[in-house]
Specification:
- The chain starts with a strand and ends in a 13-residue tail after the last strand.
- By secondary structure, it is an alpha/beta fold.
- It is built from 17 helices and 18 strands.
- Helices cover 32% and strands 23% of the residues.
Length: 574
């Protein structure tokens, strides 16, 4: 099986690179960027299964002490290399070029123009590989022809034609002197190098992120490297992943019992299904906590779904008073998340003692890779903390992790991959298609202090919003610009929810003055949760939904719509 190795220097989207390539049917493996490249790490080189290496981006600069440096051996393996953002800067500095700070940071959507050198000005031997790579930028070249390796013969003029596209950039340094042997193939609209290559060595570099959906033809650019430059063949599927993870789970757990903390959302439900279909169901304990911070009728929905999956040990813990007590007086988002995370584990330990599970039990969680990297716990040690997750950042969870007693079978998957996995495992479609719901629940959708009264207000308003989305048909521009017949707004939107703001606003109800809470509605489209765009609601939908909420939930006096994308905002408000 062909493989692409990715060196992770701490970028928030490193795993997304791997996920995109997996979508193309090629296996990827991600390791810390400063890993010593010994024979064990490079297994597969001898039999040619390792076809290429990608150097990821990073939040650091190549000139700071925090910037990870790859093993110099990466440049002498004779394998194709692709440097992305920091990865290109790293390749430049390591090989005699110069990188310097920009006077103004390049960030967000920026145009890029490819103007390739004429064939006669380039070494003749690698020109075919260069044309294969440049085919990724050409809007006239279909993805399937790149994957099948037929793009080179169809792009005879790609060496001389100008190609323009929009790319997503996020960097404060730029290349001011290319390393010997490198040539500039593309420039940004702000006038800085955007694409460079040493085609004799098959080294390519991009000063933007092809892995994010904001970059035009990003998948084609990655495919051009993987198939056109590295010569990979499609040989990896999600079904293969399922078999690999089930084998790994069975070997690690053995006959020990497993306790899964389950929220009822897609992630923990899929994790539960995977455990139940891999291990002895009699050894799998599912613990659900009714924290009082859940969606409307959540406990009933969770119980039904888990029983349908064949759960034999379902433990429902009613602990609303404890959670509201722990949150009393807390307004700062990180303080609320940590209080919730600590209480989750405290109650879990107490309940485990009541269950009489042996010390050898494993704790399982439905943690996704996005949870890990936002909490600063990616593959390496260079990722920055964005926000704590109750099942990642809690000190008590960290202690369990250090003991090696935590199982996170989804920790290398993104949300849409988890949905695919859920369908393979036979989970009901109504459950698989549910929008993401945060582990801390309504606590991070109530800005400021959390109270029982506020939870009740938000729960009712959010239920109305979701119900309206499920009954309304999509009449707007659908994701990726295509109109989808007979699709509900709920299915067209990646995630939608309501947020209760710590603001009261004056209004009028009938002939009386009303002083009600302000509610914000949030609805976004996304492919992976790492980047997100605002859903373009028709105004009439927003007007009608807002009217129903204010007419039904008397404590809400005003409704707003959040039009912030990610980045710069996060999807959740806290």
């Amino acid at each position: 099986m062909d493989k692409i190795l990715i060196l992770d220097f701490g970028s928030q989207t490193t795993q997304l690179i791997g996920r995109r390539i997996r979508d193309l049917g090629v296996y990827t493996e991600i390791i810390p960027g400063d890993t010593v490249l010994d024979d064990a790490v490079l297994s597969g080189v001898a039999d040619s299964t390792l076809r290429g290496i990608i150097l990821s981006g990073s939040p650091e600069s190549v000139y700071t002490a925090e910037g990870a440096v790859p093993d110099r051996k990466v440049y002498s393996l004779g394998l194709p290399l692709l440097g992305i953002c920091y990865g290109l800067q790293r390749m430049t500095v390591d090989n005699g070029g110069v990188v310097e700070p920009l006077p103004k940071r390049e960030y967000g959507r920026i145009g890029v123009t490819i103007k390739a050198p004429d064939d006669e000005n380039s070494p003749s031997k690698p020109s075919g590989i260069r044309r294969s790579f440049l085919a990724g930028f050409d809007k006239n070249i279909r993805l399937d022809t790149i994957v099948e390796g037929t793009s080179v013969s169809n792009t005879a003029q790609s060496g001389t034609s100008s190609l323009s596209f929009t790319a997503w950039m996020s960097h404060g340094d730029t290349l001011t002197k290319l390393a010997p042997g490198f040539r500039e193939y593309g420039v940004s609209d702000t006038g800085y190098p955007a694409v460079a290559a040493n085609e004799e060595k098959f080294w390519f570099g991009l000063q933007f992120h092809p892995e994010v959906t904001h970059t035009e033809r990003g998948l084609e650019i990655l495919a051009a490297f993987v198939f056109g430059v590295c010569g990979c063949k499609k040989s990896w599927t999600m079904e293969q992943y399922v078999e690999e993870i089930r084998t790994s789970l069975a070997a690690r757990v053995g006959s020990n019992p497993v306790l899964l903390l389950i929220s009822g959302g897609v992630d923990s439900t899929v994790a539960g299904a995977l455990l139940l279909k891999t291990l002895d169901p009699g050894k799998v304990h599912l613990m659900y906590m009714d924290t009082g911070l859940m969606r409307k009728d959540e406990t009933k929905t969770v119980k039904t779904a888990l029983e349908q999956l064949g759960a034999k040990h379902l433990h429902i813990i009613y602990c609303e008073e404890e959670f509201l007590g722990a949150l009393k007086g807390l307004s700062e988002p990180e303080a609320k998340r940590k209080a919730i995370g600590d209480l989750f584990i405290t109650i879990q330990e107490r309940e485990v003692a009541r269950l009489g599970l042996p010390d050898s039990y494993f704790l399982a969680q439905g943690t996704l890779y996005t949870d890990l990297i936002e909490s600063g716990k990616g593959v390496g040690k260079k990722a920055h903390l964005i926000k704590s997750h109750h099942n990642v950042g809690s000190p008590l969870v960290d202690a369990k992790r250090k003991l090696g007693r935590i199982i996170e079978p989804l920790d290398r998957l993104y949300k849409d991959e988890v949905r695919r996995l859920g369908r393979i495992l036979g989970i009901d479609e109504e459950v698989v298609r549910r929008h993401p719901f945060p582990g801390p629940g309504l606590a991070v959708r109530i800005l400021g202090e959390v109270t029982k009264e506020k939870c009740g207000i938000l729960r009712e308003a959010d239920a109305i919003f979701i119900e309206e989305l499920k009954t309304r048909r999509a009449r707007s521009i659908a994701r990726e610009g295509s109109y989808k017949q007979n699709v509900s707004l709920y299915d067209e939107i990646w995630q939608a929810f309501a947020v209760l703001l710590p603001i009261r606003s004056v209004g009028v109800a009938g002939d009386a003055r009303k002083y009600g809470w302000v509610l914000a509605l949030r609805a976004i489209t996304s492919a992976d949760g790492m980047t997100a765009d605002v859903y373009p609601f028709p105004v009439e939908d927003l007007l009608e939904i807002s009217t129903r909420i204010t007419n039904t939930v008397s404590d809400i006096g005003r409704v707003t719509y959040d039009i912030s994308s990610k980045p710069p905002a996060t999807i959740e408000w806290e």
